[in-house]
Design a protein that fits this description.
The complex is a heterodimer of chains A (504) and B (131). Chain A is α+β, with helices and mostly antiparallel strands and 504 residues long. Chain A contains 13 helices and 18 strands. In chain A, the strands form 4 sheets. In chain A, strands 7-6-11-10-9-8 form a 6-stranded antiparallel sheet. In chain A, strands 2-1-5-4-3 form a 5-stranded antiparallel sheet. With 131 residues, chain B is of the alpha/beta class. A 5-stranded parallel sheet of chain B has the order 2-1-3-4-5, sandwiched between helices. In chain B, helix 2 packs parallel to helix 3. The longest helix of chain B has 13 residues. The chains are: A alpha+beta (504), B alpha/beta (131).
Amino acid sequence: VALSDHSYRILLEGMNEGAAALLPDGSVLYCNRSFAEMLKMPIEKMIGFSATDFVAPSARHAFAGLLQQGERGKAKVEITFGLRDGTLVPAYCSISPVQIGELRCLCLTVTDLTEQKQREESLAFEKLARLILEQAVDVIVVSDKAGVIIQASHAAHELSGSNVLHRSFEEAFPLKFKDGTILSCAVNPDSPETFSIAACLDGRTVQGLEVKLERLDGKQFDLLLSAGPLRDSYQRLLGCLFTLRDITKRKRWEEALRESEERLRQQAHELEQQLIASGRLVSLGEITASMAHEFNNPLGIVIGFTQELLSETDPSHPHYRSLKIIDEESNRCEKIIQDLLQFARPKSTDLCPTDVKQALEKTLALVANHLYKQKIEVITQTEENLPKIYADPQELEQVMVNLYLNAIDAMPDGGTLTVAAKPSLAATGASQQVAIWVSDTGFGIAPEDLPKIFLPFFTAKKKRGLGLGLPICDRIIKNHGGRIKVESRPGQGTTFEIHLPVVQ
Amino acid sequence: VIPDSSFEDGGKMPISILAVDDEQNLLELLITALGKRGFKVRTALSGTEALRLVERESFQLALLDIKMGPVNGVQLLKEIKDRRPVIKVIMMTAYPTMETRLEASENGASAYLTKPVDLQKLVETINSLAH
């Protein structure tokens, strides 16, 4: 053979690259040691094998193409060899035609790319790791064994509010437990709910520990801390790896959810109470209404006669005082009957644009006499140009007078009645409302009575009324699409707050 | 029959009113209160009795309770208007409903008051209708 020349052999055997002479079908005529070693085959067994057998299945098509091209001229391609033990060897193959005697053959040289690929991969990986560290949404921090930060994600600097590199982790992130104790000062360091860098270096890991961070600028964060030791591929300890996840928003949502759940529960409870009360009232309502009617007529006659007699009787007459009492008490009965009738069969609400200021002034004038008699000072704080509200003027007046009379009753020894009104926004946001406040400086409502005052037939007053005044107010305001609430401090006074929708 | 009030004011004819209600005490109250204010009040405890009076005497005004038996106030209103269309009629009821209110207007009632009747308002209504 032409290659029997000794110096060529030395050259071929000394090459780092694999070299082989192939027949056009790919079977090996000759190969050097490097080629056999690359394919992990004994060199003496290579002759007669098809080089294609050592090509990974995914690259066989490309290799066949290379052989074809090689017959016509020079060609190069990257081929992955698949060895019998499963190893994949990336290689750079170049081929060219060669004439051996009468035989047209192919000369293949193969450069093993394994190391180069590994280097590239590790470079790419390093680059990826750096990108991840830089761009991670979560805070990722690496500290050395002394707890000094040596790597940090961009989010880490943002969370801390300054560059955290070369600062101690505990100083850059002064984390606290929910109860406010500082993490590293935890009372029981062995509890799973504690954390320290020393323990972390000892191999302890924490996962999803809920902590708080208050920055120097006062901004507060809720975070989930995970931490553990960081080792190199030889298991040598490098430091600690921390991740912090910002759950501030989630916590807010959770809190808002909890609050709204609580509100719903409370509303459901109120509704239930109302249903129980109105259930009682549906049956009672019919009886009440007809009874009230039956009382109405005779009472009208009593009142009529009494007033006639009173108008003819001189106040000095011995019967005058008795007539006066009959008159007062019958009027009280009439009021009770009216309340009962209204509660049992409320009239339909007739809404029209209503001027709040006027309504307040008018109703205050109605009770002016009571206020004067009981030495009650009135303060009105009504804003000018209040928007008009949709209301049934008569019903609104009824509510106001009811609240004033309650306030007057609560101040037997005088005091101050404050009536205020100003625009407000609905709890749900956009829709505009007018808020009205009626405050007294009277004896207030006991805390245990406060939740019951809008329930029908509840009354804290010994001798007066049926306990329907405030339930009627409540119903009227609700029929208006508004709401009424109360705040009270025993000994200091009571404030009723009403919100009503304005005319859009 | 309940004694009627009569009032003469220097030759000027007092306004004559027929009050109809099945409540005797209410009729007495009307006699007292309206009589004192210069009205001439005749009363009837039923529709039948009221129609007899309408046939015999002349009235400017009638005050009718709606809920009465066997002839109710609205039926009585129709009968009175049939016989004496000039009589102005005020309806009174303890059970105000839209239906009776419409029915009263359709049949020629001039006013509709809710019981217990506020005497002041009644007097104002009578005066405004009579003049």
